[in-house]
Design brief:
Blueprint lengths: L2 E4 L1 H13 L4 H19 L5 E6 L3 H17 L2 E6 L8 H10 L3 E2 L13 E6 L13 H15 L2 E5 L21 E5 L2 E2 L8 H4 L1 E5 L12 E3 L18 H4 L1 E5 L6 H13 L4 E7 L3 H7 L5 E5 L12 E4 L8 H13 L4 E3 L1 H9 L10 E3 L3 H7 L8 H11 L3 E4 L5 E3 L5 E3 L12 H14 L4 H21 L10 H6 L1 H9 L4
Parallel strand pairs: 1-8, 2-3, 2-5, 3-4, 5-6, 6-7, 7-9, 10-19, 11-12, 11-14, 12-13, 14-15, 15-16, 16-17
Antiparallel strand pairs: 1-10, 17-18, 18-19
Helix pairs in contact: 2-3, 3-4, 8-9, 8-14, 11-12, 14-15, 15-17
Length: 500
C-alpha cells in the first residue's frame, strides 16, 4: 500500500467518513494534534522552545494540542502568538486553548535571544480550506515568522501545509510561509508533493491518523515508511553474505576517483554482501587507497568482461568521465547486454545521450539522472514540469526513472509517480548521487524490485542527511556525502520502525 496524495475534497471526504463511523470532530483533532507533537520530536530530538502561530481554525487547534505534548511529555518551553483574539477562534480551537493552560500568549515579536534552542515556529495560521492570498493580520504573522527564520536561526514546521499555498495545485500566493518541514495530517496533500512547491514545504512528513483513509489508489503517491512495507524484514540469524547479494560497480577515473569510492561506500552501507569495484587500470591505485578495506578492487581494460562475472546487480557510470572511444563503445554494449538489474548514473547517462542510444534502455535499467543529465537524454522533456516530464518518460520507456532534485520523483510504467519526502538543502554537494547509486545497487542485489530499491534509496539518503543536521552533528553548510553515509544506520532503523 502506498500513501495516496489526495485533493482537498478527498481529504474532506475522509474526514466525513471518519465522523460517520462514530468519531467526533474533537476526537479526530486530539489524535491529530497528539501525533503531530510526537512527530516533531523525531525531527528535533533536543528539547527547545516552540512558538505556535495561530489562526482561527482547526489547524490552530492541532498546533495547541501538539504544544501540550511537547511541553508535558518532552519538556519543551512553549508559547503562542495568536493572530486574533482567542474568543474569535473556532469553538474547538478555543477549547484546546483553555485545555493547554499556563501558556504565554505573546503580544509582540518574540525576543528570540531569550529562547532555548532549537527555536521552532509552528505555522498554524491557515488550513487546507483557505483560498487566495493571505490578508492581515495573517500576512504580518507570516512575515514575522520569515524574519525569525532568516535572522534568528528559527525553523518553521508547517501544520498540514504552509499557510498561503494551495493544497491542490501547490501554487504559492504572495507571502506564503517558507517551511523547513511540513507535517501533513492523515493523508498526503497532492499539491504539496509537486516539485514547484518544495521551496515552501521543505521536507515532507506524514502524521498518521488511523481513522483518516483514502479508499482508492491515485497516480501520485508519497514515499512513506508508515505505509510501505518492503525492506523491513529482519535478517534471519543464519544470514550470510551470499544472501545479501553481490554488487558490481563500474566507476571512477583518474579525474574522479572519489565518485567510485562513494558508490562503493553506498553499496557497503546499503547492506550488500560482496562489493566489487571495477575501475580503469590507471585509476585503480588512487581509488584503492581511498576505499574501505571491505571493497574488492578489480582494474579493468575491457568493460565487456563484466558480462562473464557473477553479480546480482550492476552500478555503472559514477565518475567514469570521458573514456576513449573503444571503452565508451564497450560501456554502452555492457549496458545493453547486461542480464541483471542495473543502475545507470552520471557519465554513463551522458554517454547514452551523446551516442543517441536511449533505445537500449528497458526494464533492466534504473536511471538516476539529475536535471541536467535528464535534459541531455530527453531534451524534448526538459522545458515542461518535472511531473509532466516523468509521466511522458514512462509512457515511452520501460526503464525505471529516479529524477533527482529537492523533491526526487520515481516512476515506472503502470505505477503511480512516487515523490520522496526526505532530504535537506545540505545535500547540494557533489557526490551525494554517487552514494545513492551504491545504496540502490545494494537493494537490487538483495532482491528488492527496481521501483522499491529506488524509493528506499532516495528515502534513506534524505533521512540520513536530516539526522546528521537535526542531531547537531552537521549543518546544512558542512554536510558531506560521507556524513550522509555515516548516518545511514540510523536512517535504516527509522525505516524499519516507521519512525518518521
Amino acid at each position: 500500500m502506498l500513501m495516496a496524495a489526495v485533493t482537498v475534497q478527498e481529504m474532506r471526504d475522509a474526514e466525513t467518513r471518519a465522523m460517520a463511523s462514530g468519531l467526533t470532530e474533537e476526537e479526530i483533532l486530539n489524535h491529530a494534534g497528539e501525533q503531530l507533537g510526537h512527530a516533531l520530536v523525531k525531527f528535533f530530538p533536543t528539547p527547545g522552545s516552540a512558538i505556535a502561530y495561530l489562526g482561527k481554525g482547526h489547524n490552530a487547534g492541532d498546533a495547541l494540542v501538539a504544544l501540550k505534548i511537547l511541553r508535558d511529555t518532552y519538556g519543551w518551553k512553549i508559547s503562542t502568538r495568536a493572530a486574533y483574539p482567542i474568543d474569535a477562534c473556532a469553538p474547538l480551537t478555543q477549547k484546546k486553548w483553555n485545555e493547554l493552560g499556563n501558556a504565554e500568549n505573546l503580544s509582540a515579536t518574540p525576543d528570540w535571544q531569550n529562547y532555548h534552542r532549537p527555536l521552532i515556529l509552528l505555522d498554524g495560521l491557515l488550513g487546507i480550506g483557505a483560498q487566495g492570498p493571505m490578508r492581515e493580520p495573517l500576512i504580518s504573522m507570516a512575515c514575522e515568522m520569515r524574519r525569525l527564520r532568516d535572522n534568528a536561526g528559527a525553523r518553521i514546521a508547517a501544520v498540514d501545509l504552509p499557510s498561503g499555498i494551495d493544497a491542490d495545485s501547490g501554487t504559492a500566493t504572495p507571502g506564503t510561509v517558507t517551511a523547513d518541514l511540513t507535517l501533513m495530517i492523515g493523508l498526503a496533500k497532492r499539491g504539496l508533493l509537486m516539485s514547484h512547491a518544495a521551496t515552501y514545504t521543505g521536507a515532507l512528513s506524514l502524521v498518521p491518523v488511523d481513522c483518516l483513509k483514502h479508499r482508492h489508489p491515485t497516480d501520485f503517491e508519497l514515499i512513506c515508511p508508515q505505509t510501505l512495507h518492503f525492506g523491513k524484514s529482519p535478517r534471519p540469524f543464519d544470514f550470510h553474505k551470499g544472501m545479501a547479494g553481490r554488487v558490481a560497480i563500474l566507476a571512477g577515473s583518474t579525474t574522479y576517483p572519489g565518485a567510485a569510492v562513494l558508490a562503493a561506500i553506498g553499496a557497503l552501507r546499503g547492506g550488500a554482501g560482496l562489493i566489487t569495484l571495477h575501475t580503469p587500470k590507471d585509476a585503480a591505485p588512487l581509488i584503492a587507497a581511498r576505499c574501505p578495506p571491505e571493497i574488492i578492487i578489480r582494474p579493468y581494460s575491457s568493460p565487456l568482461k563484466l558480462l562473464n562475472t557473477r553479480f546480482d546487480s550492476l552500478v555503472i557510470g559514477c565518475g567514469i568521465g570521458q573514456p576513449d572511444q573503444h571503452t565508451e563503445d564497450e560501456i554502452i554494449r555492457l549496458i545493453a547486454e547486461t542480464r541483471v538489474p542495473t543502475v545507470v548514473d552520471a557519465d554513463a547517462l551522458n554517454l547514452i545521450a551523446a551516442n543517441s542510444q536511449t533505445h537500449i534502455l528497458d526494464e533492466r535499467h534504473l536511471l538516476t539522472p539529475h536535471p541536467g543529465e535528464f535534459a541531455r537524454l530527453f531534451p524534448e522533456l526538459a522545458k515542461i514540469s518535472r511531473e509532466a516530464a516523468v509521466s511522458s518518460f514512462i509512457e515511452n520507456s520501460k526503464a525505471i526513472l529516479l529524477l533527482k532534485g529537492s523533491r526526487s520523483l520515481i516512476a515506472k510504467r503502470g505505477n503511480p509517480i512516487l515523490a520522496n519526502s526526505t532530504g535537506t538543502s545540505g545535500m547540494a554537494t557533489g557526490g551525494q548521487g554517487d552514494l545513492l547509486s551504491g545504496i540502490i545497487g545494494a537493494q537490487l542485489a538483495a532482491g528488492l524490485t527496481p521501483i522499491e530499491s529506488a524509493a528506499l534509496g532516495a528515502w534513506l539518503c534524505g533521512r540520513a542527511s536530516e539526522i546528521a543536521i537535526h542531531s547537531h552533528s552537521q549543518s546544512e553548510q558542512s554536510l558531506s556525502p560521507s556524513d550522509t553515509a555515516n548516518h545511514l544506520g540510523h536512517a535504516f532503523i527509522d525505516w524499519h520502525g516507521s519512525q518518521r
